[in-house]
Amino acid sequence: MGKRIKIFLYLIVINLYYSLISIATKTTSKYEIGSFRFIVGYGVVIAMLFVYALFWQQVLKRVPLSTAFMFKGSSIIFILLISFFIFNETVTIFNIMGCIIIGAGISLMFKVE
């Protein structure tokens, strides 16, 4: 597998992981503030963000910031999918159009780099 493809997959996976932090955050928000479950959930979110920060630093060692940061938009796509399939939230045509634009922008910039 080519180096560019490995970088692409690594960036997608790390942004998928970042999207999972949104699930943990939303789940934690359902609990009463100060309750045991809220405190544990909050701790899990902080730990997940710490792990994400470590991986993000590894990305920045290997990839220019402009390339790495353009993939942050992929987390919006993942969050939309997670919201729809797990939390049964409504997805509008504008959400879909936004995801298409984000995906097109990422693929276009990835070809240019």
Would you kindly provide a written description of the structure presented here, covering whatever features stand out?
- It is a single chain.
- This protein is mainly α and 113 residues long.
- It has one domain (3-112).
- It is built from five helices and no strands.
- It has helices at residues 3-29, 36-62, 65-70, 74-85, 93-112.
- Helix 1 (3-29) packs antiparallel against helix 2 (36-62) and helix 1 (3-29) crosses helix 4.
- The protein is flat and about 50 Å long.
- It starts with a helix and ends with a helix.
- 6% of the residues are buried.
- The model has no long low-confidence stretch (mean pLDDT 88).
Percent of residues in helical segments?
A: over 70%
Approximate shape: flat
Radius of gyration: 16 Å
Query: Can you summarize the main beta sheet?
Result: none
Strands, count: 0
Helix run count: 5
**Alpha-carbon distance between the two ends:** 18 Å
Strand-and-helix sequence, N→C?
Answer: HHHHH
Strand percent estimate? under 5%
Number of individual domains: 1
Chain-averaged pLDDT: 88
Helix-strand makeup class:
mainly alpha
Q: Which regions are unreliable across 5 or more consecutive residues at pLDDT < 50?
A: none
